[in-house]
Every structure is written in structure tokens, then in C-alpha cells.
Write a structure and sequence with these properties.
Number of domains: 2
CATH topology of the largest domain: Heat Shock Protein 90
Mean pLDDT: 78
Shape: rod-shaped
Number of strands: 7
Low-confidence stretches: 1-9
CATH architecture of the largest domain: 2-Layer Sandwich
Number of helices: 10
């Protein structure tokens, strides 16, 4: 009980010893009140305090590891009372043997047998109750820690899975484009392969839990856009509106890329003229705010796909922060806007 309540074993021992000392002093004071000889009172109090401390230790061991349930609930009262009876009985026989010639003390010892048993029994029952409470609190704490650990492992596993999905998703799209360019424009296909290699070399080796500065994230985005420009040529224009104060603000790696990929995919589909996508970044209190705007034709059906971009980012944000209000999207007239709020770690 005490070893669970306090992480330091030596501290728990001091508590038990302190309780024994208090018990000794209280018993000695009562003996002095009843006029018992001082030398006898000291010996009696020491032995009684020893039995009390042994009972605390025993009940700590028993109820610290075993919690009575159902038909065994009687142990919570029965065991402390049984031990107290045996302790008081042993205490009495021991002192009768030591002070066999002290008639007045022996009469006092015999007449107060049941009072001693009641006092010691009550104290040991309280010790047993405290042991049960502490043991249950300890089990509850361990259960909560296990659940928290399992939730954390599950969250990390899902984040890892999302990261592993992100790279192949982008890689397959790029390989399909390379395949299409191989026959018609082999030089562009070769250029795209080299750029894809540089991009993957810089991102795959990164720790998926690592946060990066916005400036570093934008450098990877520009590498990604170089690849996309090989696919779409002059039709694709990306404008970055980033204030200097947010360049060193941090965010999870590759959080923006799926949104930008989604904007390119839906912005260029069904539109013949050039397409301009705007990426804005600014600070709002303790948030890094990001907005991605792309034009689209509301009269043209959206291209088929898995919807991986928005869903993956929303899921990552929920796993990281436990919130569903950090990603919003809306469409007004012919403009689709995705807004992203990234809380900054302290």
C-alpha cells in the first residue's frame, strides 16, 4: 500500500516507522495516565507498537496485491480482526511471562484485553481499507496508462500509415505522367524522373513525426511543383503569398502537398485556359494559417479519385491535435478554397 502510494520505498518505510512511533507514544501516554510503572509502560508500549507495525506490513502485502470480491469481502474485516486478536493474545501471554510477579499489572493487562483488541482491530481495519483504496487507485492509474499507451501507439501507427500512403499516391501519379511523356516528349520524361528522384530523396528519409519550418516545407513544395510543371507546362501558375514572420513557424512535414495536389488536379480539370493557384500563409494568434485557392468549373463533374488529399490532411490533424475544426473547405462561384489552421507547439 505505502510502497504504491509513494514511489520511494525508503520513504514508505519511514511512514510505517513513524506510525509505529506515534502508536508507541500514544500507548505510553495512556499507561502513564493509568499509573502504570514507567519501565513496564515502556516495554508494554514497545511490544504493542511492534505488533501494530507488523500488522500494517502484513495487511499492506495482502491487500496491496489482492482485492476481496463477492463472497470474499469478509476478509476485509475478518483478517484485520483475526490478526488483532492473535496479536493482543500473544502480547498478553508474553508480558505475563515477563512480569509474572507484578500482580497489579497482570490484573490491568487482563481487564483491558478486549479494549486493546478493539483499538488495535479498528486501526488495522482502517489500514486494510486504505490498502484497498490505494490498490484500486494504482490499478486504475495503470489501466489509464496502458490505455493511453495503446492510444498513442495506435495514433502513431495510423500516422505512419497515412505517411506511407502519401508517398505512393504521389509517386503513382507521377509515374503515370512519366509514362505518358515517354513516347511523345522523352526529354521532359527524363527531366521529370530526375526531379522526382530529388523530391523523394529529400522526403522519404524524413521522420514522419518531425515538424519542419514553413520555409523548409515550401522548398519541398517547389520541388513538387517543378515536377507538375513538366506535366502541365505553362498552364500551371502557383503564387505564394507568405509573410516573413511565418517562415520559421512549424508544421508537420508534407501536410500541404496533398492539398496542393488536390488543387492542381481539380483546378486544371475542365479548364482550357491557364490556371492560377494561390497559396497564402500568415499568422493569427498562435496559429499558422494557410489558404489554398484554385479555380474550377462548377458545371464540369469532378475528376474521379480516392479523395485522399483532403481526407488524409484532416485525419492527420485530428490524430495530432484531437480537433476537427482545423481544416475547412468551401466553394464560392468558380473558386475553391481550403483553409488550414496549425496550432504552434510550445
Amino acid at each position: 500500500m505505502f510502497s504504491k502510494a509513494f514511489s520511494n520505498p525508503s520513504k514508505s518505510n519511514w511512514i510505517v516507522q513513524g506510525a509505529g512511533v506515534i502508536w508507541f507514544l500514544a500507548t505510553f501516554g495512556l499507561f502513564m495516565f493509568y499509573g502504570i510503572e514507567q519501565s513496564i509502560a515502556i516495554v508494554d508500549s514497545l511490544i504493542f507498537a511492534l505488533f501494530f507495525s507488523l500488522g500494517v506490513k502484513m495487511l499492506d502485502r495482502v491487500f496491496g496485491f489482492y482485492i476481496p470480491k463477492g463472497s470474499n469481502n469478509w476478509l476485509l474485516l475478518g483478517l484485520p480482526l483475526l490478526y488483532s486478536f492473535i496479536a493482543v493474545l500473544g502480547h498478553q501471554y508474553l508480558l505475563k511471562w515477563v512480569y509474572s510477579d507484578k500482580e497489579a499489572y497482570l490484573v490491568f493487562l487482563k481487564s483491558h484485553f478486549y479494549l486493546r483488541w478493539a483499538i488495535l482491530g479498528l486501526a488495522e481495519v482502517l489500514v486494510a481499507l486504505i490498502a484497498i483504496v490505494v490498490s484500486k487507485l494504482e490499478q486504475q492509474d495503470e489501466t489509464q496508462k496502458r490505455e493511453a499507451m495503446m492510444n498513442e501507439l495506435s495514433r502513431e501507427a495510423e500516422l505512419t500509415q497515412l505517411r506511407q500512403q502519401l508517398q505512393p499516391h504521389f509517386l503513382f501519379n507521377s509515374l503515370n505522367s512519366i509514362s505518358a511523356l515517354t513516347v511523345s516528349q522523352p526529354l521532359k520524361a527524363r527531366e521529370m524522373v530526375l526531379q522526382l528522384s530529388d523530391f523523394l530523396r529529400g522526403t522519404i528519409r524524413k521522420d514522419h513525426q518531425q515538424w519542419v519550418s514553413l520555409e523548409e516545407e515550401l522548398s519541398y513544395l517547389k520541388m513538387y511543383l517543378d515536377i507538375e510543371r513538366v506535366r502541365f507546362g505553362h498552364r500551371l501558375e502557383i503564387e505564394f503569398e507568405v509573410t516573413d514572420e511565418v517562415k520559421q513557424m512549424r508544421l508537420p512535414q508534407l501536410l500541404i502537398q496533398p492539398l496542393l495536389e488536390n488543387a492542381i488536379k481539380h483546378g486544371l480539370y475542365g479548364i482550357i485556359e491557364d490556371v492560377k493557384i494561390i497559396v497564402q500563409a500568415y499568422k493569427d494568434q498562435n496559429y499558422l494559417m494557410l489558404k489554398i485557392e484554385n479555380p474550377y468549373d462548377p458545371e464540369v463533374a469532378a475528376p474521379k479519385g480516392t479523395g485522399f488529399g483532403l481526407s488524409s490532411v484532416g485525419r492527420r490533424l485530428f490524430l495530432l491535435f484531437g480537433r476537427k475544426d482545423l481544416l475547412e473547405s468551401k466553394s464560392v462561384d468558380s473558386l475553391f478554397t481550403v483553409s488550414l489552421k496549425i496550432p504552434q507547439q510550445k
